[in-house]
């Protein structure tokens, strides 16, 4: 089957993230970026604030300021800004231990954030810009801090009675004036590498960067299993029906609140029809995709995404 000509005028030189030999892509260890590494969340301590305070006195504490889910990246250190003394903020949020270090996330308001930016001489920015420059533990901690912060900021009022929420349990529970409890909200989404013989199915959305193709994805709906969501989303976006849906792994994705559940699946048909959500969906053989990546006709999702793991692992396999 002939591949459709990609929708572009001329090839451009782009930063193709070609990481086949990267240790992160080892087949036996999936090493999905942002996955938990050494952080022990010690969740039992969240309710024991007095005990936690005592422990602070005898442990090395790291406080990370966060504003609108963003952190301050310190490029000279390849790290996000943190310090050993707390920030003035509504609630210091306990994230957990790395060894005997206690890690905290400190949600700042606009005024506090502007003040800190002036002090440090750098601005808060999204982890997408520097994810690959952080070590694994710090990337995980930053993403955790981001997810918690975005949830807190989006829930200033109780969804049941509309009264103001207050942070509790060192940032992990919200309580309104009528004592309605709320816990961090996560939105499950599926992402799937569909194959048919020696080909895989990739698509692009109109709002994505030029030349970017990725695996199909979508949110799980109420009352739906994740396997059903895989079948429905793939058929909606491409007209392809799938079976042998196999779980691959998961990735926290707080942009703003998703949890990506990754799968592989096999196609039953090849005739693609896209819906309005997709600008293009195509079948790619390994040879075609490798060549198009090298020539800069196509880019795939950045290495910090689980979509990258799915596509690169498939490219590393041999054609049958
Ligand atoms: Zn309430």
How many strand segments?
Answer: 17
Mean pLDDT: 90
Overall CATH architecture of the largest domain: Alpha-Beta Complex
Strand content: 25-35%
Sheet/helix structural class: alpha+beta
Helix-residue proportion: 10-25%
What radius of gyration results from the CA coordinates? Answer: 22 Å
| CATH class wording of the largest domain | Alpha Beta
Compute the number of helices.
6
By CATH's scheme, which homologous superfamily of the largest domain applies?
A: Nucleoside Triphosphate Pyrophosphohydrolase
Shape: globular
Name the ligand types. zinc ion
Give the termini separation.
17 Å
Tell me about the largest β-sheet: 6 strands, mixed
Number of domains: 2
Order of helices and strands: HEEEEEHEHEEEEEEEHEEEHEH
Low-confidence segments: 1-28
Q: Which fold name fills CATH's third level, the topology of the largest domain?
A: Nucleoside Triphosphate Pyrophosphohydrolase
Quick recap of the structure?
With 320 residues, the protein is an alpha+beta fold. It has two domains: 113 residues, no CATH class; 131 residues, Alpha-Beta Complex (Nucleoside Triphosphate Pyrophosphohydrolase), CATH 3.90.79. It has six helices and 17 strands.
Furnish the topology, listing elements before pairings:
Blueprint: H1 49-58, E1 60-66, E2 71-74, E3 79-80, E4 93-98, E5 101-107, H2 110-120, E6 124-125, H3 136-154, E7 165-168, E8 173-176, E9 181-182, E10 187-196, E11 199-204, E12 212-213, E13 216-219, H4 226-238, E14 242-253, E15 258-267, E16 280-285, H5 286-295, E17 299-300, H6 306-316
This protein binds zinc ion.
